[in-house]
Each structure stands twice: as structure tokens, then as C-alpha cells.
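Lab notebook page, bench 4
Experiment: in silico fold of construct C2
Operator: M.H.
Input chain length: 200 residues
Purpose: comparison with the prior construct
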Amino acid sequence: MRLSSMAVALMGISLATAAERTASIYIQPVTSPHSSAEPKPALLAEVRYDTSLLSAPEVVTYEAPDLPTDDDAAAKLLRLGVYDPSSARWASSTTVASAENFGKGYAPHFVVTVDGEGREVLGVSVRGVKIDAGHTRDFGPQVVVVPTARGKQPDLNKPVVLSPEGRKVQEEQEKSFLQKYWWVLAIGAVLVMGGGGDGK
């Protein structure tokens, strides 16, 4: 009996740890097309999440990026996403964000979009939130994981209702409150105006 309960507990622990995932977010400065060398993406943050549980995702590691100091407008843009260093390719869609999101007085808030099962990261975006010392005590980076869901599907093969003349029947629009109960308001107005005082 104890052996079976221990086996069930170990299986539960292994399933819980298997569902927990980590995403590595990389950052790369966007350079102008005239520049000769493009900088390699650098690790910005690691995010741990679990879509099967209601536990909040967390930023495991975060390294503030070296912000570009060039006056070039393209140097103030940063590319974010999940990068695979072994194949030297972006593993997810990338977003472009301003370097001001990582400036002084701002805390980065990441939004990680994952597929429905939470296995694959589809994209990463970031926005800098101004730090207000009186409002919050948590000044570090935050993360929200958004799993994708199937959208509403169109109603196909819905029968078309035709009138005896062969035209499409228009559905009646629902009447408003005033259109339905105007008569109650009219009776109430007559009672108020006809009620009068006792004349003393």
C-alpha cells in the first residue's frame, strides 16, 4: 500500500516538473543597413512558467541590456524574441521595442505568448513601466504568459430563410426599453399631473 502511494506521488511530482518550462529571451540592437557588423543577440532574461497550473510566471534571471549610445535612430531600437544560439536563428517571432523601455526609472514588463499547450513560445514583447516608489515596492521585471486559444469560428451552412416573395427575411431588431414600456411612463405622467394637492 505504501509502495503504490509513493509511486503515485513520484509520478505526480514528475508530471508537475515536466509541465514547468523556461524561456530564454534574447535582445539585439537593430542596426542601420549601412553598418558593417551586426551585433549578436544577448541573453536578456529567463522566464519560468507553467500553463497547466495557476501559479504565476516569474523572471528567473534578468540582465539589464547595454543601451546603445549612438545618435542613429535605428540604434535606439531593440529586437526581442527567443533565440537559438546553436543554430544562430530566432526560434520565435521577434518584436521591435524602443531602448527607452529599459531606461532609468522604468521596469520592463514582458508578455510571453505561448501555444495552447504551453510547449512553444510564439513571441515576446516588452513595455517599460514607470517606477512609482509610492505605488509599488516591486521594482523588478514582471512577466505575463498568454496562451493562445482558438478563436470564434464562423457559422457555416447556416440555413437562409426566404420570404414567400423569395427575398431574404430581415430579423426583427429587439425593441429598446422606452419602445417596450412607453405606455407605463405615459400612465405615470397622467397620474402625477392629475393627482394634484388637497388645495388647502
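Observations: The chain has a mean pLDDT of 82. DSSP finds three helices and nine strands in the chain.
Next step: discuss at group meeting.
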